[in-house]
Amino acid sequence: MKVLVTGHNGYIGAILMPMLRAEGFDVAGIDSDLYAACDFGGTPPEVPSTVKDVRDLTQADLTGYHAVLHLAGLSNDPLGNLNPELTSEINHRATVKLARLAKAAGVERFVFSSSCSNYGAGGNGMVRPAPPTHPERAQ
After folding, report:
1. Which positions ≥6 away from 109 have C-beta within 8 Å?
2. How many angstroms separate the Cα of 71 from the Cα of each of 19, 82, 83, 124?
3. Nearest CA-CA partner of 72 in 58, 92, 45
C-alpha cells in the first residue's frame, strides 16, 4: 500500500515513518521543513519526500496513493496564538482542501491527526469519552 504522510519530518512523523516502513508500507512524505535540523533522536530515515507547504498541495501530489496520513500543521496553542489567522489557514482550510484533493485523486483513506488543541480545554471536571468540543477555549 502506498502511503503519503504530510508533516513526515515532524514530532510524530519522524517516529511514524520508520514504523510504517517496518510494517511493509511503501511510504513517502511531504513536509515544509519548518523545523529542518531540529530532529529528535537523530536524522530521520531516508524516504522519498517533497519539500512543500501543505497549503500548496495539488491533486497531482496525491495521485497514486492509497492513503494520506495528515500530520502537517501548527501543533500547539502558543504557536497558534501568535497568528490565529495563519493557524486557521494551515490547520483548518488547508486540511479541508487536502481532504477534498485526496478524494478527487482517488485516495481510499484519509487519516487526520490532531492534538488536543483541536478539542479545546475540557475544564476542571471529569471528561467523559465523548465530551462536547470547545476549540474556541483552547489555551
Report:
1. 66, 67, 68
2. 15, 20, 20, 29
3. 92
Greatest pairwise CA separation for the chain in angstroms:
47
Q: Is residue 135 part of a domain?
A: no
Asked if residue 9 is part of any domain, the answer here is yes
Residue 114 belongs to some domain of the structure: yes
Provide the residue range defining the domain that includes 76: 2-120
Strand 109-112 to strand 67-70: parallel, antiparallel, or no bridges (unpaired)? parallel
Q: Name the pTM for this structure.
A: 0.81
Q: What is the pLDDT tens value at each position of the chain, 139 positions in all?
A: 999 999 998 888 888 999 999 999 999 999 998 876 666 666 666 889 999 999 999 999 999 999 999 999 887 777 778 888 998 899 899 999 999 999 999 999 999 987 665 555 556 766 665 656 655 554 4
- What's 78's domain CATH number? 3.40.50.720
Split into its structural domains, the chain has a count of: 1
Residue 113 lies in a domain: yes
